TrEMBL record:
PANTHER family: PUROMYCIN-SENSITIVE AMINOPEPTIDASE. This is Aminopeptidase N. It comes from Undibacterium griseum. The gene is pepN. Residues 446-550 form the Peptidase M1 alanyl aminopeptidase Ig-like fold domain. Keywords: Aminopeptidase, Hydrolase, Metal-binding, Metalloprotease, Protease, Zinc.
Length: 883
């Protein structure tokens, strides 16, 4: 059932042009397609091969002649026409049922509108087609529909004609001037309104920008529009890449499986990544919109102009585009700290989610060798680890070197469907560097460990750092070869200053205090001379490679780095190491029933960060945030979620007990009265203020409770309201206090009943509260506002609970797993992609104690045995069970 990268065969036929006519009707849509095709003489495939799924085939004509049933075969999704001539005009008519399509892949209905999602293999649910990314063609699309129900008709490219059909129906004809693979096809039809603007490119050319939303949401499109304009300018400035169309559209839909989709000229977005105003969206939402709008826009070059040869190369476009959107967000803030804050946030996700994926049954290389269902491979490994791999080129080649590589990549491959190896070749050839070994980042799964040993010879003033790399086995890969790992580093003297670095083999860098060591062997020793005193090493600065650094620091070393490291990332890292060490010790103490204690050194370290006015408040917020329960879990071979939760809560409460006055002062200092603005400086203030509030409620009294209640009642923006409500939903107080807090939750619902995205937050908040158990979740599922068919809603409550409330989900009685199995099975019938995501909540079942393992295995077994299991879910649970 799996397909393999090594089995790639070029398509037997190319498609030059695609003409499509849609008669749009929610129940039955008629699709007529005309393809001009020609034989690919270089292919071993001699048949004309098409893919189709859930289609009613009405007509099939080749070169004007109806094809008899005997002239072709259909096996599952594959149609083969043997003995076709070298030049073919294929005419296909199909009928599809958009309202019945709950998978949200292909053409489907959302609130009475038509939406498409064709990546990865959704186009085959619209018509028979060589639905693979290396078949690129020019599309012309005619849309016809009822004028009242579907006043707006959109497709890729330029509108070339529109008009009335006389019978209450109208039409619009769209032409996309660029060749594209079928996964970039899109159409949208329905009742929509738009914010639009003429925008002047740096070349002087004017383009039309539009953000389309459902009626009533035009007060929420400004930020998406601003983000789009920023994206267009950034790609011109940083990469010299211009928008190639006269018109660029964004459409928001509330029914969407993922974040958004980069369809050529017609990006379709989850409303979550478009709609924002101060009343309904938080600072985090604003940042998410900026980065996703950027991401999809940047795909126009990295993904659309240069696309993937096959889906094994998915990271070619996704890793690169994530890197680009990360850089975009960092450049927009611009400051050194701003960049560091963004970097830390990205690395947090990588470590918490991707490292965990790399250590579990679904571990796969950045360029996988096989898969059963491609939709299961839109993963943090393809995206976030893929972005780290691109970032390593950037680190190795430097800013200008990387740009040269990008330029060569486009010069060579514009208009082509290529492989990850082609990108690496462009980087190597443009810089003259040997990047042969670097290929292992694409082929080998797993997170490498880099162990550090140091030696100092005071008399000779020689300091040596020995780095040893290793990588654990992953499914299908028992042995790993050494990776090419860039290790950015510095050495701190006792005053906290960076020392000049004189490292053997790095002559050119003599005197610089920042160096990128290149670790390529299993073990390598780097020798530094003129080291006048014993330094504290600062390694993997700015997280220069996606590895786990095993280094034994003393508390004093960490305090030194925390106070002085010139690299902000490693400053943050030192604090996290200090915290993590204590959280692990305390978790063990909880398990042993020992007395819990927090040392003065740690409390004072946190106090001095909190009060350090020289540090940007957003940076302080990150530093003062303890490692998440999921991060702490990674430190254990057997995970005890309840003990981890107890230990972490103990540290939060103890810190608050000691730092109450400091926290109160900070809270007051960073109040942001006045009009809401999502700029970096105001966001930073809000984040530190709200962190202070969340700590204050860990050691609550009536006065701090009042602070939270007042903030909830009086704040005029969602960031502050939600922060207050979150604190109010999670604190440990008296019965009377809890009652007051519960009122806030009710009020919030009433106030925002009409705002789906806010109601998602309302469910999420409860799903992740420590007081929420399986019974509460079941009650919430009965709430009239809950539905499993909307992915955002399902994710907020169900994924919130299964993925972000570990101490409750992993209840000792196994009730969480039973609920999980029921929901995976229910979702499987509705939407296999969403079901398969949920199925992954039990990936790491081997990491839990025996009694939990048994119950998880039973739940996995129950899902595996369910009737009509989709490929999507079957792949995930069978891999989990094979672990
Ligand atoms: N290419 C899109 C993005 O990263 C993601 C679409 C994935 N959709 C899917 N059904 N697998 O922006
Ligand atoms: Zn993408």
């Amino acid at each position: 059932q799996a397909i393999y990268r090594k089995d790639y065969v070029a398509p037997g036929y190319w498609v030059d042009t695609v003409e499509m006519g849609f008669d749009l009707d929610l129940d039955h849509t008629h699709v007529a397609t005309r393809l001009t095709m020609r034989r690919n003489y270089d292919s071993a495939e001699k048949d004309l091969v098409l893919f189709g799924a859930s289609l009613k085939l009405l007509q099939l004509r080749m070169n004007g002649v109806n094809l008899k049933k005997s002239a072709y075969t259909i096996d599952g999704e594959i149609m083969r026409i043997p003995n076709a001539p070298d030049q073919v005009v294929l005419e296909i008519e199909t009928r599809i049922q958009p309202v019945k399509n709950t998978s949200l892949s292909g053409l489907y209905a959302s609130n009475g509108n038509f939406i498409t999602q064709c990546e990865a293999e959704g186009f085959r649910k619209i018509t028979w087609f060589p639905d693979r990314p290396d078949v690129m063609a020019k599309y012309t699309v005619m849309l016809r529909a009822d004028k009242k129900k579907f006043p707006v008709l959109l497709a890729n490219g330029n509108l070339i004609e529109e008009g009335d059909l006389g019978d209450g129906r109208h039409f619009a004809k769209w032409e996309d001037p660029f060749k594209k693979p079928s996964y970039l096809f899109a159409l949208v039809a329905g009742k929509l309104v738009c914010q639009e603007e003429k925008y002047r490119l740096q070349s002087g050319r004017k383009v039309l920008l539009q953000v389309w939303v459902e009626d009533g949401n035009l007060d929420k499109t400004q930020h998406a529009m601003d983000s789009l304009k920023n994206s267009i300018r950034w790609d011109e400035d940083r990469f010299g890449l211009e928008l190639d169309l006269d018109r660029f559209m964004i459409v928001a839909t509330s029914d969407f499986n993922m974040g958004a989709m980069e369809n050529k000229g017609l990006n379709i977005f989850n409303t979550k990544y478009v709609l924002a105003n101060p009343r309904i969206a938080t600072d985090v939402d604003y940042a998410g919109i900026e980065s996703v709008v950027g991401h999809e826009y940047f795909h126009n070059w990295t993904g659309n102009r240069v696309t993937c040869r096959d889906w094994f190369q998915l990271s070619l476009k996704e890793g690169l585009t994530v890197f680009r959107d990360q850089e975009f967000s960092a450049d927009l803030v611009g400051t050194v700290t701003g960049r560091a804050v963004k970097r830390i946030e990205d690395v947090r996700v990588l470590r918490q989610v991707q490292f965990s994926e790399d250590a579990g049954p679904m571990a796969h290389p950045v360029r996988p060798d096989s898969f059963v269902e491609i939709n299961n491979f839109y993963t943090v490994t393809i995206y976030e680890k893929g972005a780290e791999v691109v970032r390593m080129y950037y680190t190795l080649l430097g800013h200008d070197g990387f740009r040269k590589g990008m330029d060569l990549y486009f010069a060579r491959h514009d208009g082509q469907a290529v492989e990850c190896d082609d990108f690496r070749a462009a980087m190597a050839d443009s810089s003259g560097r040997d990047l042969t070994q670097f290929e292992r980042w694409y082929s080998q799964a797993g997170t490498p460990h880099v162990k550090v040993q140091t030696a100092y010879d005071a008399a000779a003033q020689i300091y040596e750092i020995t780095l040893t790399q290793s990588c654990a086995a992953t499914p299908g890969q028992a042995e790993k070869l050494p990776f090419h790992i860039p290790v950015a580093m510095g050495l701190l003297d006792s005053a906290g200053h960076d020392m000049p670095l004189y490292c053997d083999g790095y002559e050119n860098q003599a005197g610089a205090s920042n160096l990128v060591l290149e670790l390529t062997d299993a073990t390598q020793t780097f020798r530094f001379s003129q080291v006048g005193s014993l330094p504290v090493p600062s390694l993997l600065r700015n997280f220069s490679a996606p590895v786990i650094l095993d280094i034994e620091y003393s508390d004093d070393d960490l305090s030194h780095l925390l106070a002085h490291d010139s690299d902000p990332f490693n400053r943050w890292e030192a604090g996290q190491r200090l915290a993590s060490r204590r959280l692990v010790r305390l978790t063990k103490a909880v398990q042993q029933g020992e007395k819990l204690e927090l040392d003065q050194l740690f409390i004072e370290a946190w106090r001095s960060i909190l009060n350090d006015e020289s540090l940007d408040p957003s940076f302080r917020e990150l530093m003062l945030t303890l490692p998440s329960e999921a991060m702490i879990a990674e430190e254990f071979s057997v995970v005890d979620p309840q003990a981890i939760h107890t230990a972490r809560q103990f540290v939060r409460a103890t810190l608050t007990q000691h730092l109450r006055a400091d926290l109160l002062r900070t809270y007051e200092t960073y109040l942001t009265p006045g009009k809401y603005s999502p700029d970096a400086a105001s966001m930073a203030k809000r984040s530190l203020k709200n962190l202070s509030l969340s700590y204050l409620l860990e050691w609550v009294d009536d006065s701090t409770l009042a602070l939270a209640l007042t903030q909830f009642d009086e704040a005029e923006n969602m960031t502050d309201r939600l922060a207050a409500l979150t604190a109010l939903t999670n604190f440990n107080g008296s019965g009377k206090q809890i009652k007051q807090a519960a009122k806030a939750l009710k009020k919030f619902y009433k106030e925002f009943k009409q705002e789906a995205l806010v109601i998602d937050k309302w469910f999420m908040l409860q799903a992740t509260a420590h007081t929420t158990d399986v019974k509460t979740i079941c009650e919430l599922m009965e709430h009239p506002a809950f539905t499993l068919t909307n992915p955002n809603r399902a994710r907020s409550l169900i994924f919130g609970f299964c993925n972000a409330n570990p101490s409750r989900f992993h209840a000792a009685d196994g009730s969480g797993y039973i609920l999980w199995a029921e929901l995976v099975i229910a979702l499987n019938k509705i939407n296999p992609q969403v079901a398969a995501r949920l199925a992954r909540s039990l990936d790491r079942w081997k990491k839990y104690p025996e009694h939990l393992q048994k119950k998880m295995k039973a739940a996995l077994g129950k899902v595996a045995a369910a009737k009509n299991l989709s490929k999507d879910v079957a792949e995930v649970v069978s891999k989990a069970l094979a672990a």
